[in-house]
Amino acid sequence: MQLNDDDVKLILSKNIKSARIASNYTQEVLAEKANLSVNFIKDIEASRSGVSLATLINLCKVLKTSPNQLLKDFFKDSVNNSEDIVQQLNFLSTFERNAILTLINYFSTNDFNNIVSN
At what angle do helices 38-45 and 5-22 cross, to 10 degrees? Predict the structure, then answer.
């Protein structure tokens, strides 16, 4: 699927607006907290304007969300898998979660390509 700027603007506008509403912010409050103009927030939410990477990160910080969440519609499978994993981890005890985090850290810091190929 070939994406264009309008597709990205449409998805971001919908998800930024949803995150803003979930945060109980008006457009004015979001603009103030993100140090942006109210008109720019309105343009983003109406899909009339895109955002730079720096602005996206700033909005994520203010809205206490992640770029993954705001772009989730482009990566539905990976986001859904991540959400499933998080839900499964929530059912584990603290000891079990820490054990899994230790394993993840171990595997992410070691080169297993050499072990697998030998």
Answer: 120
Place of tokens 């171990």: 106
Distances (CA, A) of 90 to 9, 68, 72, 102: 33, 20, 21, 16
Amino acid (one-letter) located at 6: D
Q: What is the mean pLDDT of residues 63-90?
A: 75
Q: Is the pLDDT of residue 115 over 60?
A: no
Alpha carbon separation from 53 to 80, 108, 109 (Å, rounded): 24, 27, 28
Q: What's the pLDDT at 35?
A: 97
Structural tokens at position 103: 């394993």
Q: Is the pTM of this model over 0.90?
A: no
Amino acid at 36: L
| Under 8 Å between Cβ of 27 and 38 | yes
pLDDT of 49 > 90? The answer is yes
